[in-house]
Amino acid sequence: MFSHIRTIWLTFLHLFKKKVTIEYPEEKVKLHPRWRGRIVLTKDPDGGERCVGCYLCAAACPVDCIALQATEDENGRRYPEFFRINFSRCIFCGFCEEACPTYAIQLIPDFEMGEYKRQNLVFEKEDLLINSQGKYPGYNFYQVAGIQAGVKGKGEGDNEEPPVDVHSLLP
Amino acid sequence: MNVLFYLSSAIAIAATIMVITRYKPIHALLYLVVSFMAVAMIFLSLGAPFVAVLEIILYAGAIIVLMIFVVMMLNLGSETAQQEKEWLLPKVWLGPSILSLVLLGEIIYLLLRSGTGNASFIFIDSKKVALSLYGEYIIAVELTGFLLMAGIVGAAHIGKHKKKHLHRFLQEEEVSTKIEVRSTKPEDEKQTKPVAYKP
Amino acid sequence: MTVTQHVLIVVGVLFVMLNIAAGLIWVERRMLALWQDRLGPNRAGPLGIFIVVADTLKLFFKEDWIPPFADKKVFVLAPAIVVGSALLSFVIIPFAPGIVVADLNVGLLFFLAMSSIGVYSIVLGGWASNNKYSLLGALRGASQMIAYEVFMGLSLMGVVMLTGSFKLSDIVAAQQDMWFIIKQPVAAIIFFIAGIAETHRLPFDIPEAESELIAGFHAEYSGMKFGMFFVGEYIGITLISSMMTTMFFGGWLGPAFLPPWAWFFIKTFAFILFFILLRASLPRPRYDQLMETGWKILLPLVLVNLLVTGAVALWTRG
Fold first, then answer.
1. Which residues from chain C sit within 8 angstroms of residue B54, using beta carbons?
2. What is the average pLDDT across C50-77?
3. Which domain holds residue B146?
4. Under CATH, which number does the domain A29-137 receive?
């Protein structure tokens, strides 16, 4: 009986406690840097697309919401011809980000993407590409990759020895 | 007052006729509630508000609810209605109806003979009821008290839990220990044949 | 009192009561939220009060579905009984000296009669829905309400003994010197508990317990028929609160700096808030616990209370 009265009194005291409600549209929610929200495609420090069209994100996606088609430019640099994410299917699991070998696809702390038309949730490459390097500033895949794709000459990459003339190695 | 009396009497009679003609028992009971309310209204129009309100509280509010309760639990279907139809043969209802008709005739005769037929209006408040209950009719009140007491004791006796209900897991355990006891018996060298298991 | 005055009082009481019942939708959600460290509805209108309008409109425009397996006439009748019986009870409540629809000399018994009629809404609603959960809810509701009606009536009899009248204005007038809560504390507590059970409000909402019976007796109801049960519950809360005020807390009596009706409404509102606080804080008891508390604790208590009250009343009279 007394425990009941005590319960009632303690509940009453909650009237004067600070409320936990965040009044959303006026007061924004605090999102952490690694919060998994909207998916973006980032760019290199020199402004080129990071995505090399390897399909690993599409393969990793558990709900199959990523579709892309890889192609090559005249320098031999791979890039996606189209890159389409259907956000009405996306579950924001972040597997695509983990699968990406070039840090191109990233999840950013933004969730405000409500739409009245479902079709508007299908994001094309121009909607996904942002003019930023995302979480990995200074990283340039073609700068560390072995191949020559118009970013750097052969042997001029970071931590890369100049190419050895195989004829000079003959005994 | 007279208009009210005749109106509520008409409602009471109509509702009571509906009670005995309804097919579904719940509908019949609902009409019975209406009938009780009409009777309460008659009491009110005759100047007995206390009895009127008690009529609603006790009969309409408690007893009929209990009846509905029973009807809900019995789960009466079309078979029971059929059975009832078979029971209601003319030889069953003819006798009581003739007797009731005789009574009805007597009432009509009395009503007509009493002249104007105006019901006298005497206001009876709760104090008067109480004084007569605990004055003139004290023995009746005490006897009612005895009767209700007997009813309560009976209800308490019937409602008492006699059996101790064990959870089925606990029951299993009990049985298994008994089986163990039984299995040890054939090992006893004095007994040539195993004794039948007695719980 | 002229006829126009009387009509004005009737219309006024009806208007005020229905508005309070509707406004309680907002009050309850807001207060419940505050007691749970939330804010509650605060978007539509000032402090979110227009949620009442939004909710009412929603209820009106929802599909009013009568299940094909239901007993249609009874199904339609049940929600009307709950609102009707609760509103009829307000006939006898004196809001201020002279402001009462009908000051019956059996006023208190009339209140008890109407609350016993209110049981039918649950029983018939649950039975007519022709649904197992509804039927279970109806059975529970009926036995709970009949049981608690007994203690409710008996707890009020102590007050009647001290006053010597069933008339509510007499009862309020008898509290001029001292409120009956001081003379009859046990009766007041039991009346309040029984009142909660009678309105099947949250600690005792086992007829509709949503975690075990989905929604109990009104599981099949939708649209405005459900709305009637909803409003009926709020009218019931207001009724029990105003009865509590009238019977034990001096009704309209209070210091003169506020008019009598204001005192009445302040006290009633305090009890309504207490109802909501109970909802916010207490868990639902089991069904058999509720019935055992009723018959084995409250009934003896209330009988002892009656006995002591009678003895003291006789002794003081000499």
1. 109
2. 86
3. 125-159
4. 3.30.70.3270
